[in-house]
Design a protein that fits this description.
The chain is an all-alpha fold and 128 residues long. 77% of the residues lie in helices and 0% in strands.
Amino acid sequence: MNEVLNILLEYIIVYVLIFILNYLFFVRRKTKYNKNKVPVEFYYLVNLYKLDQKKINYKKFIYITAFINTFIVASTYIVIYRLLDSWIWQLVFGIIIIILLIVICYGLLGRYYQRIMNKGKKRGKKNV
């Protein structure tokens, strides 16, 4: 039980530190929409899920992707650091875990925006 609490505390500390760094270096500078500096995640979701760029609240999207990216990095760190000893296995499984988490998390986010936009079409809302 004590080991689980230590891992959970470490995860929370790592998550907060990574989010602060992510906020300082990426989120704070990208909250205003600039067509030339849009993150790759935005184009990935818009093209894959056929979303309307104009209807997405860009600032909210940046914050959601910051939470998702922080979750991906922190979770990968905890799993790799706690479970594996050899650096080659850490590298191989780290890449696999990152790819899986990116596909899963951004897939869920894309479906979320699809559902919100479908509800917005029924109600006549402009921005989601």
